[in-house]
Amino acid sequence: MTLTFHWFLPTYGDSRYIVGGGHGLPAGAAGGDRPASLGYLTQLVRAAEEVGFEGALTPTGAWCEDAWLTTALLVEASERLRFLVAFRPGLLSPTLAAQMAATYQWHSGGRLLLNVVTGGEAHEQRAYGDFLTKAERYARTDEFLHIVRSLWRGERVGFEGAHLRVENARLVRVPDPVPPIYFGGSSPEAGQVAARHAEVYLTWGEPPAAVAEKIAWIRRLAAEHGREPRFGIRLHVISRDTAEEAWAQAGRLLSGISDEAIEQVQANLRRSESEGQRRMLDLHGGAAKGLRELEVAPNLWAGVGLVRGGAGTALVGSHEEVADRIAEYAELGLEEFIMSGHPHLEEAYWFGEGVLPVLRRRGLWRHPAGSAEDTAPAAVPFAAS
């Protein structure tokens, strides 16, 4: 198996410490010492492409910049990097979304991936004018993706559902290639939508046993529809030459988190309707702890989730240890890994120059652009005669 790795574009700002914000937090809660300027994001895109990431995830929400517009501006800054654009299907019409994807593929040379985010935060959805319940939002997402996929097949679509209605809809240009749908969620409603529509089911970074249960759950649901999705995971990472250096960096990040910040962020996250967010909160309990007390599985550290919504765990360790943990997740059936770190520019190099070569030597990764190193036989250690 050859694994696929994506990086992350912090379109809310970056820092040498953990940047708060994310799912369930109010607009303006995120930010950092490095503004998410086009210049900085261009550096990130070029670094990610150089070291071997396949794509880059861009978040969605009131706490960050718009993902469609930002990534469209960044396409010209790269040659092959693909953009995993997160968007909320309830905030635009399915016909317009299908058209936008086709336009994006035409102008970018087919570099769009789509991360569909139904939205687990009622207060944030209402700020956008969406007053449906969580169950209704998932039902609408199901209808939305049915319409979009029909349009992408070149069909003329008439549809009337409980939440969406279109008449005589058709695209002048269908996307080529059709962008794969990435979809996550831990609730029963999310599982049903993922089973019917996701090419890649995503989970946040939970311990391996919990991830294995999720994979089995989605596989079972998808099989009922005759489908076999791929699986991916969203993780932060702190990888260094030695484990001691990596944990020292995790400790430095933890030292930059105040009790007041934890209390404020956790109060906001506890009102989340997201089952995935609840599972993240359960890992650390919502309170400050010692550095290694936040290690919820070997090399899996929950400290990030103290002040950040959404993905709240990081792989921490030496390059070999991080590669070991990735290999363990791969054995469960995970094929795609969406990684990030603070600050994102420096950590892209730590991971790209430290962990990816280890995985390449193990036959688990190849540079997307191809290289002599990917095809050369493994070096034989020098032995004196």
Strand order of the largest sheet: 1-2-3-4-7-8-9-13
Based on CA atoms alone, the radius of gyration comes out at: 21 Å
Q: What structural class results from the helix and strand content?
A: alpha/beta
Distance between the termini: 37 Å
* Assembly level: single chain
3D shape: globular
Number of helices: 13
Helix content: 40-55%
Extended strand count: 13
**Would you tell me the overall average pLDDT?**
92
CATH homologous superfamily annotation of the domain at 4-235 and 334-370: Luciferase-like domain
Protein architecture, described:
By secondary structure, the chain is of the alpha/beta class. The chain has a domain at 4-235 and 334-370: Alpha-Beta Barrel (TIM Barrel), CATH 3.20.20. It is 41% helix and 17% strand. It has helices at residues 38-51, 67-74, 94-108, 122-127, 134-152, 188-197, 208-223, 243-255, 259-269, 275-284, 319-332, 344-361, 372-375; strands at 4-8, 55-58, 82-87, 112-116, 157-160, 165-169, 181-184, 200-204, 230-240, 295-297, 300-301, 314-318, 336-340. The protein has an eight-stranded parallel barrel with strand order 1-2-3-4-7-8-9-13, surrounded by eight helices. The chain has a two-stranded antiparallel ribbon with strand order 5-6. The longest helix has 19 residues, at 134-152. It is globular and about 60 Å long. It starts with a strand and ends in a 10-residue tail after the last helix.
